[in-house]
Each structure stands twice: as C-alpha cells, then as structure tokens.
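Worked example

This section walks through a single chain of length 555. The input is the sequence exactly as stored; nothing has been trimmed or padded.
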Amino acid sequence: MILERIPPRICSLFMLKATLRQAHSSSVRPQPVPPLLQTLQRYLTALEPLLPPEELEHTRGIVQKFGCPGGLGENLQRELIKRAKHSHNWISDWWVQWAYLECRQPLAVHSNPAISLPKRDFTDWRGQLVFASKLIAGVLDFKAQVDSGRLGVEYMRGQPLCMELFPQLFSSCRIPGPKHDHVIHYGRPRRGPAHITVVRNYQFFQLDVYNSDGTPLTESQIHAQLLRIRSQSWKTDKQPMGILTSEHRHTWGQAYTRLLRDKINKESVRLIEKSIFTLCLDSPVMRISDEKYSSRMAAQILHGGGTFSNSGNRWFDKTLQFVVGEDGSWGLLYEHATAEGPPIATLLDHVLDYCKKPDRMRAPLIPLPMPKKLYFYINSEIKWDLEMAKQNLDMWRFSWPTTGEACRKRSGIIQKRQMIKREAKVQLLREAVDAYSILTEQSLMGQGIDRHLLGLKLQAIEEGLSVPRIFMDTAYGLATHWKLRTGQVPANTDSVMCFGPLVPDGYAVCYNPQQDHVHFSITAFNCCEETNAEKLALTLERSLHDLQELFQPTV
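Given that input, the structure is written out below as tokens.
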C-alpha cells in the first residue's frame, strides 16, 4: 500500500533468511463503495492506539461532523456510488494516478520493486548467455499463453483475482512528464512489437525474438543473437544513458524532452519503450564477503549498484526488466504503476518451470538479422543531465549488514512456572491473528478504510471543493504516515522481493514464506538516525524464535 513518498537519499537493505492467470473480468466482483459510517467508525478505532485521549476526542468531533446526515461526507459518498455504477473498480484509475503517476520521486528504490532469485550455477559470461537465452524463451512462452487466453484464473482465499494486468506487462513503459507521468502500452496480440531490448556495458540493442512466420526464436537462435550482441558491446567510453531514468521524475521529464529533440535519440528511446521487455546483462556483483553477498545481489537487481557498477544497464521506466549477472545472480525489476506482485509471481513461476525443461527445438536454418545497436547523440545539455544523474544516483550508496537466518527447528524448554504466562501470550497472539485475518478479509472484499477515505478526498478535489477538514486533521496525516511498508510475495522458490521505505523514518519489509523457513528483505534509509535495517532484522529474528518457543510443547 503506497500512500506517501518522501525522498531520502541513502538506504540500507538487509536480506534475512528465516529458517494471476488470464481471467474474465466478469468473474471478479465489482469494487464496492463501503458504507460511510462503517468506514468512519473503523477509522476512529484505528486511531485509538495512535492518539492521546484529548486529541482523539478532537478528531472524533471532526469525523462526526463529516459523517452527519446531509453533511459533506454523505454528498461525497453519493457521488462515489454513482461513479461505481459506471466502473468495475471505481478506485483503480484514481489509485494509479495518485499513488504512482503523480509521484515525483525517483522510480529506483522509492517505487520499483525488485525480486532477487536464487543464484544459478554458472560463473562466467558463457553460462550467463545460455541461461539468458532460456529465460527469454520462457518469458515468450508465458506471453503466448497470455495472448491466447490459455492462462487460467488465479484465486486468493477463494476469491478470483482480476487479471487485466497480465497483458499490460509486455510492451509497456512509463513516460515522464512535467507534472505527472503516463503509461503507454504498445502490445497487441499478434500485432504488437516483436523485439526485446538487451543492454550490456551501458549499450542498448534491439533484438527481434520472432521469426518471419511469427514463431518465437528457439533458445539456440536467441543464444546466437546474444553472442552477436556481446561481440558489439565491449567496454568503451559509452555514456550510461539508462541512469537518466533514475532521476527525480520532474528532472528526468525535462531531460527526456531535451533528449527527444534529436531524431536518432527519439528512435532509440521509442524502441526501448516499445520492446516486449528488457534484458540486462550485468557484470558480476561486487563482493565484500560471502555473508553479505545475498544483500549485495538484491541491491544490484534493485538499482544496479551505482555508476561504477551496473546502474547504466537499466531503463527504470520499463515495466519489465530481467537482470542476469555473469556470476549467476539474477532477478527481476518492475515498474509499479503497471505491474503488481501476483502477476509477477505467476510469471516467475512459469519461467522457473520452463528453465527446468531441456531445449528440444532445433533452430530453423534461416539467417537471422544482426541485432540493431541503438545510438544516442549526446550534446552538452544531455552531457550535463547525465553528470547530475550520476551524482544523484551515487548518493544512494547502500550499506550492507550481514545476512542472518532463523529456522523453524530450534529447541527450548519452558518451565512449568511460566505456563500461565505462556498461555496468556498464546491467547493474545491468537486474538491478534484473528483480528488481522478479519481486516485482511475486509480488504479483499473491498471494505478497507484507507482506499475509501482516499476516494472521498479525491472526489472532493474532483468537484473543485476545498479539501475536507477530516483530511487536514493532524490525525489523518499521522494515520497515513506509513512507517512500515510490508508485503508478502509467496513464490515456489527461495526468492525475495525488496523495495525502499515510503517515508524517511520508515522501514520496508517483504517476506516469502517457504515450507521450513521464511525469506525477508528489510530496508531503511541511512540518513535517518531513528532507523536501522540490521537492528530490525535481528529483532525480527529473535521475535520469530520467541514465537517458535511459545508454541513448542512444554516439558
């Protein structure tokens, strides 16, 4: 959930190992508008632990006035209900615009999530290109299922998920603007772009991935083309053009306008934007120690490691970017305005299953065109833009704590004299879990309070009204200052997603539960003295051990 973004510059990431398919929109129930008084009451309940009694009473008066019969709240609620009658999801467009496209903070770290996957068993460029060929073929196979409608319905807790995002994953890109961004989607089944973008040593290439008869290239064909790209992308004094996309959105928007004044630049940028997805062929992750390697690897997927490393091998506006390093590191980076966790997880599961299969298709005896190298003309203005982008990106240098592990198999004896205390803790924990489950179920059924309140606020703005007092109250600012940004992204492998906190004094925690362990990523901005990613990771690990002991049979 993203309700606020404020731009600190430095971040820590801590990796901790604690030992939607194509659906018909009609199968997904329309997003309801929750009852106004229900949301307002739940809002006050949520504020109780956050506010002292006198402030809570002050806010209660504001909320009651907003929700009184014939008041402003009822009028705005009535308009929301009208809006919902003409839309399958009345909040969706507002949410994407407000939470993403109007946000001016850099996409790198602040918005784009990254998924770091288990290291592969190769350690040089030869293995890198073989695996990259298999990966490309696997993604194209998944795209074929999406395009043909052969992907089945995804469910969460028995509820069908909306799958409209799946086709949007491919051939789409975010475009910077002076006040807000927009997303362009070029993909249409059988008629969309037929190429991907490959970037190595800061140099971009257009790689056609379909034969003239419309069939996708085989793995051996793709491999041959990647070898050609490697032969054309030796390290040179090429400028890292992709770093421009890591800038503040307003800054990048201005540079984007200057960049596209040149015909050559415009053609190259458009080919990147239209491509089905981007493949980043990275140099190895810079090693400090084995225990910190997983954190380093995740950070490289997330932002490229800086101008001295692989950040120039990114185009952060692109919806899908697969990253494959020479040392076996690999993962996925995606732009959040178009993509969400569930379809990304489904895509990765498909790719991982595909990678287990041998390549049995023989390459057709057809000569393939040379991959097209994309060129950029860099004048003094663009040169200056690049230098500023480099400086700003390198201000995000991360510190890397050690990697920890907390498994579920840990022995411990709880004395009998602690039995009463233990039972009380268990009961309180069960009550907390039950309460959380109810809140989760309410959110899945469209009864969450934050989106409803946001909708009421945006409805007032759309009508040209002053922002209602309930949203100017300090309590609302406190309630929407999300110090903890969390996400659970279950996967069929030991992967973990990572992203930056929403606020300067906050944390971001993402976790992937496995059968006998849980993977965590924990990030915090180093510029804040109140937060420490490593300290939170160690505290979390101790808490998990305490919970395990709590539920172990007593002796």
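What to look for: The mean pLDDT is 87.
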